[in-house]
Amino acid sequence: MAGLGLPFPLLSDLLAQQVIGAPRSARIKSCLVLFQAGGVSQTDTFDMRPNASENIRGEFRPISSNVAGMNVCEHLPLVSQQMDKLCVVRSMHHRMLCHNPACYCALAGRAVGESKAVSNQTPAQQNDYPNFGSAVARFTDHPDDVPAFVSLPFTLYNGAARTPGQDAGMLGSQYDPFLIAQDPSAPDFSIDALNTRAEMNGRRFAQRRGLLAALDNQQRQLDTTQRVAQVQTYYKRAFSMLSTPRAKAAFDLSAEPDSVRDRYGRHLVGQSTLLARRLIEAGVLFVTAYAPVDHIEKVSWDTHSNNFPLLRKTLLPAADQSLSALLEDMHQRGLLEETLVVWMGEFGRTPKIGYTQSNNTNNATGRDHHPHCYSILLAGGGVRGGTYFGRSDRDGWYPAEQPVHPGDLGATIYDAFGINPHQDIRDPLGRPHRLIEGQVIEGLL
After folding, report:
1. Are strands 86-92 and 374-380 parallel, antiparallel or unpaired?
2. pTM of the predicted model as reported, rounded to 2 decimal places
3. pLDDT tens readout for residues 156-188
């Protein structure tokens, strides 16, 4: 092949295109991921087992929804009236038993092992595969006056280890998300990075921008490394966001009527979800809102103990209020037609109560980590609402039909954006890697 006179990267790209084919044209403009940190119990929410034994079916009972045959948990009454907009994927699966590798798999579509001993030993690294949002920011055109990718309202950690899969990894830090590490429900919530000091008038701002351009020009003559390019990208986007009103307006929750803020819920999950909708409406391509970790009570979906009280009193009410408000609101605003909404965690919970299969302490009142079969929700973006995709087995331990790996979900999201999911990307050493190994799920979007 050397006789063709083509450099290796170009040749590999041509071969990949012949084998894989070109991606379809973009079918969505944006994606909103509502990430339920800790792992939601599918058995207690959207894939219930009312006829199973007591130690599987648990304490909750199903109720009817606005779609015949699609029952949901009794503690999700508001979401039950929005099921006509939702597709429940009941056959998600992977092998990662611990939070950090499982989150990496869910957010970047990559499996990194299945050992029970890797819970806190898989921190984020420069060579990680990118978050879906970072790849969208890299391979999709977007204006500079709003970020392409935003995450909120905190960064995920497991112990001392920063969870991988939240950032751009090997794509470079210029494609990291714009991080809002604040509670949007706080009375004093504001984005300091978008505020200029009073003495920084338009003339002084323009002068500083001109000075920066001159310095950048000199620096380019001295150094053309990737790090310099990343810094230049930061500066360009920062000035664009500071000098245009659209970004500031998008982050201003006070512009929302009290009735809307009340409908979403005056709590961390509700106001984060509302802010995410505002960002999508303002033109942000990809938003990830992490939930439901409460900064005071430190509550998450990781219900190794007290599963039913935590779900009944704290977790399900906030999810029910915020998700139902989002679906209703986005539908009324016409945003669901071009926006894919994904409600998911890193895995599910064991169908059997008190069963232990991870390296965590689990007791008779809880459900352990269960990556082998769990449920997620999809809405908008061409998703056919009021449907199921895939099916779990009798007690919910493994997929029985149409298994879906997070890599398949990622490939489907990329394809919906018009991005070739199987193209090569380069790590900091220039080595080629396939963007994602999963396959596009035909008929899902």
Report:
1. antiparallel
2. 0.87
3. 998 888 999 999 999 999 999 999 999 999 999
